Amino acid sequence: MTDTRPASIHALTSATTLLPHPLPPCENARIVLFAMRRMGAHGLADARAAHTMVTAFGQGFRRPLVLLRALMADLAATSAGTIAIAPCCCARATPAEAAMLSILARIETAPETARLLMADLLGVRRVDGVLASAAAVAAAFADEGRPITV
Q1: What is the pTM of this model?
Q2: For the chain, which terminal residue's Cβ has fewer other Cβ atoms within 10 angstroms, N or C?
Q3: pLDDT tens digits for 72-117?
């Protein structure tokens, strides 16, 4: 049987399969997602990620930026597999990105949920170090008046 749906429907179906999650409504979550995507694709010293943090936080940008860089390094070093990230311009998120945003949003209020999500994301049992990095990032954002919510 031949599929007679227009090509645009196939592209949409493919995009929602690969990127099933919408971007979060929280501006702070979108900031951290953009910076994570840039650092994941272009390295920890990416200038656009740094510029985004300077623009969002002003003079208080250093702590969130340095802690986000440390989190990204911890994620890369600890993960048993690859962590899928979408290009910066995508208006949807991968399951891994959605999980990371959920972890950052829940680390203070639901630490056990965050721990399980992190273990699933990384594919390892011992996630205490990476979880501590995530808690530091979430606290840095909250301390600067930009709590991450999803």
Answers
A1: 0.87
A2: N
A3: 999 999 999 999 999 988 999 999 999 999 999 999 999 999 999 9
